[in-house]
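writing this on my phone so excuse typos. first protein, seq and then structure
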Amino acid sequence: MIFRATNIYKSYGSLKALSEVNLECKKGEICGLIGANGAGKSTLFKIILGLIKQDSGTIEIDSFGLKPIGGIIEKPALYEYLTAYGNLKVFSQVQGLNLSTALYKEIMVQVGLHPERKDIVKNYSLGMKQRLGLAIALLNKPDCLVLDEPFSGLDPMGIHGFHKLIKKLSIENKITILISSHIVGELAELCDTLYVLNKGRMIRSGQADELYNTSVSSFKILGSGFQKVDFFNALNPVEIQGGYLVTTNRTKISSIIKEMAIQGAEITACIPQTDLKVLFDDECL
């Protein structure tokens, strides 16, 4: 393991923010941390990055580089009145790195930003600011990255682009990436392993696809000709614009859609609907 958090506890007065939290990631692995707002994700990430101190427990990072770990907590802390180069220059100086023109261009290309852009960061879109924040986190080539809710506020195209970038960093640079979200679907296809944090406790972990399948409780089926299907009413469908919401699991949905098509329904889309609550243990609901 390149990264391991063991028995992490953190309290603020009488409030227990984290309790007996354990998490580990392999080299080059993408690990996802799922939890509702207030579950303790940002607190855990701040501890991992050394921004705050845990009450007890240990953080281990198996790295001998100049910068074992880098990250973004919530929104990137950027100087919006400076250019991208100006921002990277400032943060390079803080980290004791000499930012050459060649290195600047290399990092900008690595995160998908144009190195020749000269306007101030205030003009950047949210997605571009996230990429610039990632460029700063990559200074001094860390072995691990921690990204706290990096998709927040991004449109679907922005999320897709950031997904591709994170996968590329993991595969090509062998960087271990720990990333959080409160939307399981955002991390399901991106991560190798998922951890579920609820009210400061780590209640589940496992393969990302398996936990995602567990979280899918219904499907939005769009199309026409549903009245031709003799068993459709038995599914207790809820009518929505352009189709119906059907409660079932991923094991059964394929045969349902196939039989509907055989009976003359025209299916234009079948969209899984995830519910974070189904990942929580009964005692945590």
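second protein below, same order as before
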Amino acid sequence: MTTKEDWKPRTKLVHGGTRRSQYGELSEAIYLTQGFVYPDAETAESRFLESGPDEFIYARYGNPTVAMFEDRIAGLEGAEAAFATASGMAAVNGALFSQLKAGDHIVSAKALFGSCLYIVETLLPRFGVEVSFVDGADLAQWEAAIRDDTKLVFLETLSNPTLELVDLAAVAQLAHAKGAQVCVDNVFATPVFQRSFELGADQVIYSATKHIDGQGRCLGGVVLGTEAFIRGTLEPYLKHTGGAMSPFNAWVMLKGLETMDLRCRAQAESALRIAAALEGHGNVSRVLYPGLPSHPQFQLASRQMEKGGTVIAFEVADGQAAAFRVLNALQVVLISNNLGDAKSIATHPTTTTHQRLSDDARAHLGITPGMIRLSVGLEDVDDLVVDLLGALDRA
């Protein structure tokens, strides 16, 4: 007889964390309530002193639907606990600010999503946190930057949009040797293809808006970690600053988790085929996809990730004007700035998601004017290949 801990990931994604009411509903219930009623004053007093796992006080502190989502994603990741947030950036903000104070030192990879970079580069120093930046792929830089007083290292396990990997196991070993925590954003690698806790992460962050929802409906985020960190450090910060996920969004995320494994695997298979097709086109000067042998970190990707993921970056020859012509010629792939969606989405990072960076900073990260980030959806892969190659031909 197997226990819930023995379930395979796909089973956990369907059944993990389920709480059923006295009515025995099949689909998880949406508890759209701000507050909760107590049978007597003594119960109210005791619940404010210490709430049990199925005892709730106020929706900003916790909710049965949100708790189901938290328990399900924690079970998949192998984390002790999780806290769901209003957005992916609420998760990043909460994970960092809840454990840092003036005078602390952190080391961060330079290759970060624009809003993450704003928090690390602008907001944390404003509150007295010292930040050292390193090239994430260079272990020597990590080793030189992590000090005896370093409190935390922060990184994207697969960077946006250049798909640069960080050797998480090696960085975690360096950080832990100095007593530092390791906090990672694992959105691009996905919880399907990378087990970040097994590689040494102490906290893992997701924008649930991406692959977890997977259908462009709701914002959400989640932070996973030890019971002590989530309950003792993160939860007090988030419940008093108001970053909680709404019950309706949590229900949408629960429905998304049920199909996430199937979706991500189908998208990754299509992404590999598309990346190979793009690599052979004369108007493409570079293709970046961790599943291709041509990726500069292909060996690390093969060790660290089960598959190459759902996102491709490719560079159109002749720069921004040519990239715009390609984008405008697409018929199936949509122009937007989300990713991890059932619909394929193309983005021009230089003028959208990473436009606030200086030209020098983008150049240093390898974000060129001709680069297009492609999030591969669930359309027929043959249609996507025809659409992309046709757009490149016409451009």
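The radius of gyration is 21 Å. thats all i got for now
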